[in-house]
């Protein structure tokens, strides 16, 4: 395989993985970013985010000189420019593409004649056409745009880069499509070559589908709670169906958060509406998600007889377990709602030292000390390991709202806790043991 000269523009969460990954695929990679601190940090082999395996991979690529980070790059030196800048939502859900167009302008100054701009950021269908028009207007009609969406999950970024379920390459011409597909030749995964709009839509469709299963799971979990059914067993029976699958997004909780699912569902709704189409299913998914936090706050309000002056401990602050990322965290949204109603909120998360508007005392016992209620926001081993008797001894009152089903409700009820799950009598097995 031929080593290509690749420029990665924007080395935030996605750009850093892309740069390190392409260097490990034996390409010659330069990463640039407008954030000078980030460039300095990565060039020194330091990585802020909690991404297992990525720091070591970064350091080895730097050592081998396959990778470097710089504030800027020499003009005319690159065959490919990967755009990995953010595409955040505007208030109506429309993605803000200003960073993307600025990055494309930079690519136009740095690519060799006939070079290729690869959009790795999540972009609305039709963006590739608009970028090519902008490049033509800038006198770079020789350049082409190819979309290769990124499907990795935070907290598993390095694993997902190296072992993706699929690679999607969307281009207008076959030669360019092939050239970009070859960059990933070292990865063993099915490669879908398609037109650019299909590739752009493939990313949004994937996130919309995942979000929809989360909202479905949340509604089923609510119904199970009303009926006294066991959600754990319920979802296991669904996952056992091969048409649904073991890794289906059927984990209930405070709803989907993070940098992608909320903004990409909003963007897809916007994209459809702009073409006169209403996506009813997606709208319901978003609405169900929006209501989760309010439901949790209402349960706590009722159980505590008002939130004013209550102390509430929230366990799990990042947008999901296993990451330090607080963007669109539903746990933080709940903390904010509780605080708005006069509660004092304390938070604990092993991967988060501080969070805006919330007191983080640094240890789990300190977060629980004197609390009137406990919110479990993450399903994680460290939560499951928490001893309910020790928690009861630390807290002022024994009340727990467990959003994801992260604790053993029977054990917590036995320790005197009132929980948000209605418990049925255990089923006696034929041998007399309890199930
Ligand atoms: N975070 C994820 O897990 C994930 C996964 C798949 C796709 N995506 C998509 O990838 C894109 C980037 O997301 P992210 O989480 O990496 O964002 P991020 O904010 O972490 O990183 C973006 C980086 O781009 C830099 N930047 C902005 N304008 C620039 C410019 N003109 N030139 C050079 N650098 C510039 C910023 O300083 C920042 O470091 C988004 O479209 C997102 O939807 C994200
Ligand atoms: O069964 C589940 C699974 C997830 N979630 C929540 O859904 C959100 C998103 O989770 P996850 O998909 O693991 O997070 P991301 O790292 O944001 O990854 C998603 O968003 C990325 C950015 O587009 C895509 O690349 C990934 O494929 C897509 O999974 C989080 O708040 C989770 O807590 C649930 O509530 N229940």
Automatic annotation (TrEMBL):
InterPro entries: 6-PGluconate_DH-like_C_sf, NAD(P)-bd_dom_sf, UDP-Glc/GDP-Man, UDP-Glc/GDP-Man_DH_C, UDP-Glc/GDP-Man_DH_C_sf, UDP-Glc/GDP-Man_DH_dimer, UDP-Glc/GDP-Man_DH_N, UDPglc_DH_bac. Its EC number is 1.1.1.22. Pathway: Nucleotide-sugar biosynthesis; UDP-alpha-D-glucuronate biosynthesis; UDP-alpha-D-glucuronate from UDP-alpha-D-glucose: step 1/1. Pfam families: UDPG_MGDP_dh, UDPG_MGDP_dh_C, UDPG_MGDP_dh_N. It is an enzyme of class 1 (oxidoreductase). Belongs to the UDP-glucose/GDP-mannose dehydrogenase family. This is UDP-glucose 6-dehydrogenase. It comes from Tepidiforma bonchosmolovskayae.
């Amino acid at each position: 395989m031929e080593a290509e000269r690749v420029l990665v523009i924007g080395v935030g969460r996605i750009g850093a993985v892309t740069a390190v990954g392409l260097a490990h695929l034996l390409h010659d990679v330069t990463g640039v970013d407008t954030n000078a601190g980030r460039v300095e940090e990565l060039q020194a082999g330091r990585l802020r985010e909690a991404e297992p395996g990525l720091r070591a991979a970064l350091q080895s690529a730097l050592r081998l000189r396959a990778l470097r980070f710089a504030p800027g790059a020499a003009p005319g030196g690159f065959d490919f420019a990967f755009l990995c800048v953010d595409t955040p939502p505007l208030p109506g859900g429309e993605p803000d593409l200003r960073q993307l167009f600025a990055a494309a302008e930079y690519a136009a100054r740095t690519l060799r004649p006939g070079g290729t701009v690869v959009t790795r950021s999540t972009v609305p269908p039709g963006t590739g056409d608009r970028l090519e028009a902008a490049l033509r207007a800038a006198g770079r009609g020789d350049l082409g745009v190819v979309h290769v969406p990124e499907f990795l999950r935070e907290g598993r970024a390095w694993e997902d880069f190296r072992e993706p379920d699929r690679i999607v390459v969307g281009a207008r011409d076959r030669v360019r499509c092939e050239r970009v597909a070859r960059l990933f030749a070292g990865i063993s995964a099915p490669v879908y070559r398609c037109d650019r709009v299909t590739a752009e839509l493939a990313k949004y469709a994937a996130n919309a589908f995942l979000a929809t299963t989360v909202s479905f799971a949340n509604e089923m979990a609510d119904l199970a709670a009303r009926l006294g059914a066991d959600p754990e067993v319920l979802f296991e029976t669904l996952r056992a169906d091969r048409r649904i699958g073991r890794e289906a997004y059927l984990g209930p909780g405070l709803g989907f958060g993070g940098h992608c699912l909320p903004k990409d569902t909003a963007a897809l709704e916007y994209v459809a509406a702009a073409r006169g189409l209403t996506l009813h299913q997606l709208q319901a998914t978003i609405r169900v998600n929006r209501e989760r936090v309010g439901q949790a706050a209402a349960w706590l309000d009722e159980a505590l007889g008002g939130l004013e002056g209550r102390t509430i401990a929230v366990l799990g602050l990042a947008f999901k377990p296993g990451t330090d990322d607080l963007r669109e965290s539903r746990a933080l949204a709940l903390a904010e709602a509780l605080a708005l109603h006069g509660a004092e909120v304390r938070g604990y998360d092993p991967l988060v030292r501080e969070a805006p508007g919330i007191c983080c005392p640094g240890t789990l016992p300190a977060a629980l000390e004197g609390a009137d209620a406990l919110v479990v926001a993450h399903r994680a081993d460290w939560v499951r390991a928490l001893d309910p008797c020790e928690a009861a001894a630390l807290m002022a009152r024994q009340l727990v709202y467990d959003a994801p089903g992260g604790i053993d409700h029977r054990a917590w009820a036995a320790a005197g806790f009132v929980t948000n799950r209605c418990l049925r009598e255990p089923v006696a097995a034929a041998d007399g043991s309890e199930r």
